[in-house]
Amino acid sequence: MQNTNRLIDDFKKLTKTTIWKHLNAMAVNYAVYSTHLKGLPPYLTDFGTYLYCTDTNMVIVSLDCCGHDDSLTYKESQSLSALILANGCKPRISTVFKLAKTVQLAKERLQGTDIKVYGILLTEAQIVNADELKELWEQHNLMVIDGFRGLKYRSAGVNDDDELPCKEYVKRVVDCTDETPTTGKTMAKTAAPATEASEDEQDMTGSEEFGQMLDRLLKEGAETKDEDDTADITLPDGEIQQNQDLSVKVEILAPLANPQLILKTKQINIFNIPQAPFCL
Q1: pLDDT tens sequence across 96-141
Q2: Residue 276 confidence class, pLDDT cut points 50, 70, 90
Q3: Phi, psi angle pair for 130, to nearest 5°
Q4: What is the DSSP-derived secondary structure letter of residue 187?
Q5: For residue 196, what are the contacts with CB-CB under 8 A and spacing of at least 6?
Q6: What is the mean pLDDT of residues 255-269?
């Protein structure tokens, strides 16, 4: 007997270390239509989202690139409510709640079909009570994988084959929003290797770019002659007679250019120089 929930069941088995490999594999799965959105209004407007769809299943994968400082280590709501309340902390809007509302809305837009909808949240936050809430999330057709780093540097290919009938289901969900999905004309259908720049690599890149810019400007300034300062100067040469028995042969060099005038000539704007990353 054919498993009509295979797409969803396969996603449920994934972990933080296997999810991106699976997403890229979906790009070359001829039976699964997929697309990428910069956001999925009204609840996931600022969250990059991938949608995967077959004739029976739809999976919504949302990326929460929130960072990972101390304030993002917290407990999620145990009742799947909109606000997370904790003693001594400001109330925060639950991202899991936003995904739950998106899944519910997609189901409403797919009424009259046999499509089952499942939502997956990939977040950089550290949800302390994630293990305790897995059963609750599963009851609402949700899965959360936390503790990621550098999600904004990750990407996966998509298979937006216009000939796939299941594209109409995705269109029904997306067309009710202001977001336009990226098309295959602009995204590779084959899986692009997922890449992630480490924090150290990002810091080094910014610092090196800043240092190289300053070195280049200083080098160019040292090689530049200020014609306004030297054009009218006549430099003597030859011999200077000190006395009857001694004469000195001299060579007078051109004066060095004024560094302040070099900067004025080049019209250097320090605010256009890439800044080195600031780390606490």
Answers
A1: 999 999 999 999 999 999 999 999 999 999 999 999 999 999 999 9
A2: very low
A3: -60, -45
A4: S
A5: 149, 150, 153, 154
A6: 54
Whether the CB-CB separation of 233 and 200 falls below 8 Å is answered with no
Amino acid at 73: T
Q: Are 82 and 93 in contact (CB under 8 A)?
A: yes
At residue 85, the pLDDT reads 87
Strand partners, 247: 241
Instruction: Tell me the C-alpha distance between 193 and 21, whole Å.
Output: 8
The lowest-confidence range among 87-96, 115-124, 141-150, 259-268 is 259-268
Q: How far apart are CA 4 and CA 36, in angstroms?
A: 24
How far is Cα 155 from Cα 76, in angstroms, rounded to an integer?
Answer: 26
In angstroms, the Cα distances linking 2 to 5, 7, 60, 115 are: 9, 12, 23, 15
Q: Give the Cβ contact number of residue 43 at 10 Å.
A: 20
* Residue linked to tokens 């594999």: 25
Phi/psi at 97 (5° precision): -60, -40
How far are the Cα atoms of 12, 69, 115, 192 from residue 5, in angstroms, in the given order?
11, 37, 9, 26
Cβ–Cβ < 8 Å for 76, 130: yes
Closest of 170, 173, 169, 99 to residue 140, by C-alpha: 99
Q: Where in the chain are the domains?
A: 6-196, 200-272
**pLDDT tens profile 239-259:** 555 555 666 666 666 666 665
Strand-strand pairing, 142-145 and 247-251: unpaired
